[in-house]
């Protein structure tokens, strides 16, 4: 089997929630074959570590990425930011984010989400305000949640206007975030209208 075959199994396991199987397959690949991993392999393994809450294993995967020079791949960096966020390691997520030379919108979304997940809404909002890209549905859904955490109904309304101006209203995550935001601010009629 070549790298693509191993990746098919590892990625398939991770995408379907079989995180432990993904990690076992990766360890089998490394132990029993001469096939080398690539960035696709590591993105799935790092994601599995984050979802299965295995910080030490995630650090090992990061170390392997650095050792094999795959750590400069933006997809690996984004997976690391997400993993660190899920595990509550915001400082580590910041380090990876700051290390990224070629950040893309996904990098920004991962970092904003990591901050939001760890109740650092003020920092998430500050990062959003310095965003280098046009936001997408993921950015918008996350920042609406951040506004809800901070109780910023006015800014949330501005984001709501942005949603309709740029035609994001069909995205279920954006709609759910808006409904939650209006519900939490006591504007139940508005929440029902959005729903």
TrEMBL record:
Keyword Transport found: no
BP term (GO), one: RNA modification
Keyword Mitochondrion: no
Keywords carried by this UniProt record: Repeat
GO molecular function annotation: RNA binding
Protein name: Pentatricopeptide repeat-containing protein
Organism: Heracleum sosnowskyi
Species classification: Eukaryota, Viridiplantae, Streptophyta, Embryophyta, Tracheophyta
């Amino acid at each position: 089997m070549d790298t693509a075959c191993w990746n098919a199994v590892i990625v398939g396991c991770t995408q379907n929630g079989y995180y432990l199987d993904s990690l076992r397959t990766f360890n089998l690949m490394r132990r029993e074959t001469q096939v080398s991993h690539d960035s696709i392999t590591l993105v799935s393994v790092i994601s599995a570590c984050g979802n299965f809450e295995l910080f030490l294993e995630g650090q090992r995967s990061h170390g392997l990425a650095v050792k094999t020079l795959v750590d400069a791949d933006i997809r690996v960096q984004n997976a690391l930011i997400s993993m660190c966020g899920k595990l509550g390691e915001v400082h580590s997520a910041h380090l990876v984010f700051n290390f990224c030379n070629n950040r893309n919108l996904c990098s920004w979304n991962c970092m904003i989400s990591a901050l939001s997940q760890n109740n650092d809404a003020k920092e998430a909002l500050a990062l959003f305000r310095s965003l280098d890209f046009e936001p997408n549905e993921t950015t918008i859904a996350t920042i609406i949640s951040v506004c809800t955490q901070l109780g910023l109904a006015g800014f949330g309304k501005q984001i709501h206007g942005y949603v309709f101006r740029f035609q994001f209203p069909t995205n279920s995550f954006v709609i759910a975030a808006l409904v939650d935001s209006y519900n939490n601010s006591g504007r139940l009629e508005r929440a029902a209208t959005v729903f």
